[in-house]
Amino acid sequence: MITADYISTNGDCIFACQNAAGTTFNTSVTQYFGLSGSLVSGQSTETNAQVTVNTAFQFSQLTCNVTSNGITNASTINLRANSGNAGPAVSITGSTTGIFNDNTDTYSAATTDAMNYRVVTASAGTSMKVAFIAVWGNSAVQVTPVTKYKHFRNIPHMKPPFTPNLDIGNQYVKFG
Question: Is the pTM of this model over 0.70?
Fold first, then answer.
């Protein structure tokens, strides 16, 4: 397994919901999702999807990936705060796929704001499939980076000949 850690020193982060297979939305649907986690199943009641941010954030760059789209009119995805539109919004052109992004609007969330995404589909056509919804956040909190080390792998007491290996971040270095 290969993993990567993202450590921001200037308060940047990404809040994303995703479903690798894509989540299907039929016409005339309104669904709500939390700021991060699964996009597999939404909520029909907004308060069930809301999360309190607990830190003041500046939200921007609302983005989604539409992988198929049989809805013929425009659908929308909004960032929501306290059950109202927060500013960043994406308009998904009817019968169009790809990455959609709002690179203009921002929202400054207070520490008590209840945040979520809202997906609203148009009434004409069949359905659309969305793989992810994400928004960029900045808390303006300065973080000191912490370096993490993985301990050397202990090799059991062995009689020669043996070939010790060093496990460094899932990359093996062979000695000898």
Answer: yes
